[in-house]
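ARCHIVE CARD
Drawer: 12
Card no.: 0347
Subject: one protein chain, sequence and derived structure
Cross-reference: see card 0346
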Amino acid sequence: MQLPPKVTERAFARLAEINAGNEGQALRIAVEGGGCSGFQYDIRLDTPAEDDLVLEGNGQKVIVDSTSLPFLENAVIDFSQELIGARFVIENPNASSSCGCGTSFSI
């Protein structure tokens, strides 16, 4: 049985700050081929689709499509605020390596 990704309170709080849920939007986390390591994350606001896994918290939603789900098994979706900027980040135990930018990985 696959363990779905987890979303931190910080990530849900950031979605609430930008008012995503009130606009009918959710944070989509998808995995696509490409990037410098073979796969890359596509993180954007989107409308939930019928086959999406929906993770809810703090009145907000994070969605993952069924194709991306196996790549994100047991991953942690977080929000990071650092000197270089603020962004949603994914800690993925399935990735054997990742690039410096944090958006590309290999399995």
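Annotation on reverse: The beta strands are 6-7, 26-33, 39-46, 53-57, 60-64, 76-82, 85-91, 97-98, 104-106. The domain at 6-106 is CATH 2.60.300.12 (Hypothetical Protein Aq_1857; Chain: A;).
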